[in-house]
Amino acid sequence: MHRTLVTAALAGLFGTLVPVAAYAQASAAPTFTKDVAPILYKNCTNCHRPGEIGPMPLITYKDARPWAKSIATRIANGTMPPWHADPAHGQFLNDRSLKAADREAILKWANSGAPEGNPADLPKPPAFTEGWQMGQPDAIFTMGEDYPIPSSGTIDYKFFEVPTNLTEDKWVQAVEVRPGARAAVHHVIVYMRGEQTEPRQAAAPAGEGAARPTPPFSFGQGMRRPADAPKPDKAPIENDRAPKRDPGAWLTGYAPGQSVRVYQPGTALKMPKGAVLTVAMHYTANGKETTDRTRIGVKFASEPPKTEVLVVPLQTANFVLKAGSTDTRVDAEMTMNTDVTLWSALPHTHMRGKKWEVTAVYPDGRSELILDVPRYDFNWQTDYIYKEPLLLPKGTKLKTSAWYDNSTANKANPDPTKDVYWGDQTWEEMQFTAFTFSLPGRPSPTTAPGGANR
């Protein structure tokens, strides 16, 4: 009888201890309010909020809880947050990848039942400006019409001119493109035409017949579209919004995953007095008629910058991607004819691009891989902004290399049975990089970065 009572007492004791232990284990798990929400607010909610590109908001526990398993899967396989540069070849200001501790916290939270936690621990959600990722613009320039987009067919590039009516030169600190019909907009390039919109050249020698100054950049030979390439597909009707004249200097671009460009303090892009913006729209019919009225938001610097920057494209159209080919490499090259500073690089291909590299070859023959994108993703294109800008001495060559998969193994391939050439449309291809530079004659960084002279 005594042994029975002892056994019962022990059973009762352990019966109470098990729930206590289970509670302690559960309480050790990260909670949404205390641990996960701060990470989401810092890294995710700029896109994952109502009206933005993210497919669902992640601001409240009610928002995030149904997606806990999916969030864990995407974070575990590295597809979210979207970041594709190899950290072994450069550090970047806009690196979206999670810190190891933050990654572990979200995975542990999701795998522990995704507990909410104490509502009192929830931090105040970040303040957003509705309709703009960069915050409230100082100026908004809008297309003058709601342009109709058909449900089907090939659509040529459309060019819309938007006056700025600026009464003085301005310095662009940040710029954002907001398509009105995002689902039908493949990409946008915005140019600005006005006084002094082209890269400054060295002063020309005095006297008649003097030699023209050497341009700051020269581009490799043989980068035009092959003469025997088939002509690009054209729209069945004449382009009703064709370019009127030279659009001018690059202001900004929009592509999936890349809509905002913020320049570092002390640097800015010049927008001249009276500038006219040329908005080059690449629409893609998606089975539904719609209209688009794209907007460009700009924040201006409060004073002239120490360093003026400009954007210079490098591209080659001299390639063919043979039907069924899995690993075609296409290269382009430019040479620095003066000392320059490189601030960022934005590589761009279409659906068949799978890998990118940018290499600097210095005048002494040294070669350095300065950007490596081993898994390029058309749906998340990025302007990779160097944490420390790279000083490229006169004579440096910048080489870009892109690899393409035109086979059935590429699930995004529009048609693996066709040879593919350079072209504007999504089912064609590009090899294009937009570099942000500053030139001599504008103040340069005061500290030399390690990248150019390692």
Question: What's the helix and strand layout?
Answer:
Blueprint: H1 2-28, H2 32-43, H3 61-64, H4 68-76, H5 100-111, E1 139-142, E2 147-149, E3 158-163, E4 170-178, E5 185-193, E6 217-219, E7 249-254, E8 260-262, E9 267-271, E10 276-283, E11 290-292, E12 295-300, E13 307-315, E14 328-336, E15 340-348, E16 353-361, E17 367-373, E18 384-392, E19 397-404, E20 432-438
Parallel strand pairs: 9-13
Antiparallel strand pairs: 1-12, 2-11, 3-10, 4-8, 4-9, 4-12, 5-7, 5-10, 6-14, 13-20, 14-19, 15-18, 15-20, 16-17, 16-19
What does this structure look like?
The chain has 454 residues and is of the alpha+beta class. The protein has 2 domains: 31-121, no CATH class; 139-197 and 216-438, Jelly Rolls (Sandwich), CATH 2.60.120. It has 5 helices and 20 strands. It has helices spanning 2-28, 32-43, 61-64, 68-76, 100-111, and strands spanning 139-142, 147-149, 158-163, 170-178, 185-193, 217-219, 249-254, 260-262, 267-271, 276-283, 290-292, 295-300, 307-315, 328-336, 340-348, 353-361, 367-373, 384-392, 397-404, 432-438. Strands 1, 4, 8, 9, 12, 13, 15, 18 and 20 form a 9-stranded mixed β-sheet that branches. Strands 6-14-19-16-17 form a 5-stranded antiparallel β-sheet, with no helix packed on it. Helix 2 crosses helix 5 and helix 4 runs antiparallel to helix 5 (100-111). The longest helix is centred in the N-terminal third of the chain and has 27 residues, at 2-28. It is globular and about 75 Å long. Residues 1-26, 196-206 and 443-454 have low confidence and may be disordered.
